[in-house]
Task: structure prediction
Amino acid sequence: MTNGAGAGCNISSSKPRCRDVGISIGTLPAGPYNAITDVPGVLVGHSTIIEGEGPLVPGKGPVRTGVTAIRPHPGNIFQEKVPGAVYVINGFGKATGIAQVQELGVIETPIVLTNTLSVGQAWDALCEYMLELNPDIGVTTGTVNPLVLECNDGFLNDIRGRHVKKHHVLSALNQAASGPVTEGNVGGGTGMSCFGFKGGIGTSSRCVEIGENSWFVGVLVMSNFGSMKELRVSGIPVGLELEKRLGMQRKAPPGSIVIVLATDVPVSDRQLHRIAKRCGGGLARIGSTFQNGSGDFAVAFSTANRVPHKDPSPFVAGKWLRDDSQELGRIFAASVEATEEAILNSLFAAETMEGRDGNTRMALPVSMVLDIIKGWNA
Result:
């Protein structure tokens, strides 16, 4: 059965986030929730599937997977598209819809995250969701471009079973909410691993003052990459010391990460591509080296300057930040900081999980990490 904890609704994890234990990343202030939902209108929903235990029976289980959905605004995104961009840091991935976003610079569906072999089911469900909202699709207007991204959770999950079904995707979409976002072993992050520990969903945000207004940059990640020795926290090589103290070496497969960045700053799709590139800076700061077999994708969108599906004018009117402005430079910094902290939050929030064949990913030993940082600083 589907585990109802965190399925659809956003409930804060009982585990501390990295800021709760004194680890602050960068210099820019976080938003009220320190989450992608600090960007006004952005909604996040999860559907978590945890079933069975013991030996793997392909097609039967055990199941450790799910779906996370990000809705850029509460309305009909096909009718009110958002400027968007995709930056492929390393392309070992099976995402759908990215080519059209790269070509046209708009996103016209929610963004769905799941496991690699469930992309087809997620695409079909997201397509049906959009068709129900828009009876004109394929009749009096064109088709739709579902945007689905993935990571491989096969170490813990019966990935061949493709246990993500249409109702899981629709649940995540329909119950997506604002406010605090559940992190760790939830939604698409249920079966994910990070730096040899349990990974999953993490989020963070930054507030940037431009003129008299406060603007937000929010990031949500699905983390599934890295070996233990590579982990760095605030620049400190924590992973190397963890290997020594734990007496183990966790050399995980290259893995992948999906990074979704949202902002309410009025920027163009070309500028969003520049911003998405900077997410790779946050990924590198925490220890990723973008291995050959790693699928590292950054998707960015702005809730400003929405693009109506039907507009009688052949011209587009809008207002964007200048490329040479100091303000855009701060947005770049915000994307780096929020990405790095979102990945840390995915580790801090995750709990030890046993999956198929007894395969286990232990939770990051936070007290040990803090002790290593204390010793390093001393």
Remarks:
- Residues 2-309+321-377 form a domain with the L-amino peptidase D-ALA esterase/amidase fold (CATH 3.60.70.12).
- Residues 3-12 have pLDDT under 50 and may be disordered.
- The chain has seven helices and 16 strands.
